[in-house]
Structure formats: C-alpha cells, structure tokens
Amino acid sequence: MRTVLVASQGHLFIACNAVIIIAMISAEMWLRSSWQYHKQAVAGCGFAVSYLMYFVLEPFVDGAQMTLMMPIMIALVYFDQKLLNILGVFSLMFYTAVYFGLERPLLGKSLLEFLLVECVFIVFVLLAQAVIIRAREVRSHVEQLTKSEQELMVERAISDKLLKVDALTGLYNHKSFHEYLDSLLEQCESNGLRLQLALFDIDSFKQINDTYGHWVGDLVLKELAGKVGGMIAPNDFAARYGGEEFAVIFTDKSFHEALSTAEELRAGIARMEHPYAGGKQITVSIGICDYVAGDGKELLFRKTDRALYIAKHRGKNKVVAAADIPDSESLMSYA
Questions:
Q1: What percent of the chain shows pLDDT beyond 90?
Q2: Is 58 helix (H, G, I), strand (E, B) or coil?
Q3: Contact yes or no for 320/287 (Cβ under 8 A)
Q4: Domain span at residue 313?
Q5: Is pTM, for the whole model, over 0.90?
Q6: β-pairing, 195-202 with 237-242?
C-alpha cells in the first residue's frame, strides 16, 4: 500500500504536529494558572491549531479547509456572539492572506475554491449566530418559567402561612395549634419528649372593650401577642386559642423552667404600658400543666384549664400549676 506522505516532507509533518501539541499544552497551562482571558486563550489556541492542522492535512486530504472552522465552533461553545463575529471576520481576512500569499502562487489553487471556502466561513458564522440567538431565547424562556415557579412557590407559602396564622395577632391560629399539639403528643408518647401546656387569659378583657372600644381591645391583643412571641424560645409554640385566650406549648424544658418562663410572661405583660387604654394595667392569668405520658390530649386540657380557672378566682394576674392545686380546692368552691 502506497503512503501519501512523502519522506522528504516528514520533518514538516512532525514539526506541525509538535507545534499543535505545544499550542494545546500552552493553552492548558494558561487556563490552569490564570483566571483572566480564558475564552481568548482557548480561541487563540484553536485558531493556531486549526491552521496547523490545515497545513498538515491539506496535501493529503480533500476538504481539509473544514478544520479552519474550529475557531468559529469555539465561539459557539461559549455562546459569545461578539467573539463569534470577531473570529468570523478574522478568519475571512486571514484565509484571504493565506490564499493569495501561499496557496495561489505556490499551489495554484483556483479562485473558485477560495470563494467556496469564504462562503463556507460566512455560512458557518450565520448558522452559529442563529444557534446562539435560539439558545438565548430558550434560556430566557426557561428563566421565565423558573421565575414563575418561584413566584408560585412564594404565593403558596404565603397562602399556607395565612391559613396557619391568626390575622390580628400574627400568632398561630386555633387549628394550627391543635395540629402541632397532636404531633408533639405523639413524640411524647413514643420518644419521651417533655412538654408543658400553658393557657392564659386577659383579665377583665370585656371591660376593656366596653370602656375603650373594640379597636383598643385589638391593640391590646396585638401587643400582648408580640410580647409573648418575643419572650418564648424558638422551640416553643404560641397561638391565639380564641378571643382573648392564648396558648403556649413549651418543649425541651423541665417543668420548673416552663413555670419560670410562664411567670416571666405574666410579669412582663403586667409591666406593659397602654396609654390608649388610659394607662390601665392589663394583666393575664395563666394555668400551666406538665404532660404525663398516657394522659392524652383531653386530660391535659382539662388539667390546664382547671389551673387557669383557679388562677382567675385566686385574684387574677397569677400563674397556677395544675400539679400544685390541692385536692381540697375544687372548682365547685368557686361556683
């Protein structure tokens, strides 16, 4: 089988391949050592390699001019329209110089072949432009879809929050409170989680509404809710249980820690000033109960509600623990 490689030209073939390897290694070293001009380094290397490959293949391979399209393909990989235009114009000019300086006088190539190669350059650039434009349109469409999905997620999150939060106070509502309590009671029974429930009621709230109006009553509810939310721990749960009644679930605390927090809440609320209510002191009565495994939700509420009832009838503005109520002190004595 006869080879197309002439022995006298072997050193040129080896030299061109060596230069190609050097150019590629140089570009790789540049990319690893510098954070600047990455695209320019790759494009420059691609341009040099494409013409070196062209010179190597041209004597032996028909259509070797296709290797000259490599720089345009590099610009397409980066989706850089500006770089594509620069490389397209430069390729047209550089090949013109190569044709009239080397190929026409030395190889006798026809003008038609030159024009065909130039036309291929132009077609490649136009096709690459179309690909980049289409890719940008697709990216824009995907970004719009992503943005719409994010907006829907935000709207859904806001809707979920509105369903769980009391509109006036910003605390969790009655339904969310029971859902959370049910979940925690399951943890108490299965994993021994410590839990305390506190119910507290604003003392003489009806009198506040009757004297100063319901808008003042709403202000009192909002301020007290803010006070409660700011004083409890992140693992605790506060809710507006109904009307002027609030509930707090304490977790990861001993009973004495929960009782101390409840007392701090009572004292902090009593110190609040309410100039819109004539400077009248507004207090709360609190009943608190430590959950005992096996009691269940209903018994926990009965014990806590009983403690709250007794706190009211002991003079209000007090914290009463269900465990501290003597058997002799029954609800019937306050009837």
A1: 34
A2: coil
A3: yes
A4: 174-334
A5: no
A6: unpaired
pLDDT tens digits for range 144-181: 888 877 777 766 766 665 688 898 998 999 999 999 99
Q: Are 166 and 239 in contact (CB under 8 A)?
A: yes
Does 203 lie in the same domain as 115? no
For helices 81-98 and 38-57, what crossing angle results, to 10°?
Answer: 30
Shared domain for 193 and 271, answered yes or no, is: yes
Answer yes or no: do 104 and 34 share one domain.
yes
Q: What is the DSSP letter of 30?
A: H
Distance CA 227, CA 196 (A): 19
Residue whose entry in the numeric block shows the structure tokens 């009192």: 220
The predicted-structure confidence for 31-41, as pLDDT tens digits, reads as follows 566 666 667 77
End residue of a domain, out of 97, 118, 142: 142
Rounded mean pLDDT of 204-228?
91
182 and 260 belong to one structural domain: yes
Q: What 3-state DSSP class applies to 272?
A: coil
> For the chain, where are the alpha helices, taking DSSP H only?
10-33, 38-57, 70-78, 81-98, 111-164, 174-191, 205-212, 214-231, 255-270, 296-313
Under the banding of pLDDT at 50, 70 and 90, the label for residue 247 is very high
First to last CA, the chain: 118
